[in-house]
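Box 4.2: Ligand-aware structure prediction
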Amino acid sequence: MEEQDKNIKEKLDIEPAILIHQLKSPLSSIKLSLQMFLDGSFGKITKEQKEIIEKIYQKNNSLLSFVNDLSDINNIEQKFYSFNWALIDLQDIIQTIVYLRKEDIKFKKIKLKIDKPKTTLPKIPLDKEKICMVIENILDNAVKYNKIGGSVEISFGKTEDFVEVRFKDSGIGIPDNEQDKLFSKFFRASNAKKLDSNGSGLGLFIAKNIIELHNGKIWFESKENKGSTFFVALPVKLQAIS
Ligand code: ADP
């Protein structure tokens, strides 16, 4: 029995990166095969079959994105995260992300407004892929935790050292007594859990780490049932990152 326990323990003691890889590969293959069924590569499918495959596709995708979040957390914690710095127009990437989300925004009848910055914003040193992840997460939350017909307003600011972007929504807000835990790993506020049972509570934890690895800042102001504003400030100049 002891020998068996030892074997099980050794199996569970697997490197997180290997475990993530072992989960990611089959999920990615499943995704690809399901996509082929849906686009007709294996022949015509009936309406009923299509509906079922689409459901499996969505479930598989949520699992895949959870594993991708775990992979990002592992990279952050093990300090494996490498950065691809380039001078990027933040306003530009935000406009593209909003455009790509237009169906979700339309579906919830959200009134989305992007304010024009008062001064021209400089291009700033960013890892585009990672900053896109942060912006996507904040915007998805502003839509997901909003009411039908609610609003999201994106605006910009600039100081000598930082470019700032704000995402103001008219959603469910965050209860006062839970606000201090918001950027913790796996944390989801009680009202968010009630509204949407799907969620990992990993997005903001990853976002905070990515922004801090850019030497930037992320914070929020919120009132329950009134809405939230998330702020992201990113340095204009590349600074040494420890
Ligand atoms: P998830 O959305 O998967 O739960 P996140 O890490 O993105 O995970 O967010 C953590 C929690 O922060 C959410 O579960 C929710 O309680 C809260 N939250 C984030 N953004 C908003 C928002 N715009 N409005 C209300 N609550 C929010």
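In the box above, the bound molecule is adenosine-5'-diphosphate. The chain has a mean pLDDT of 92.
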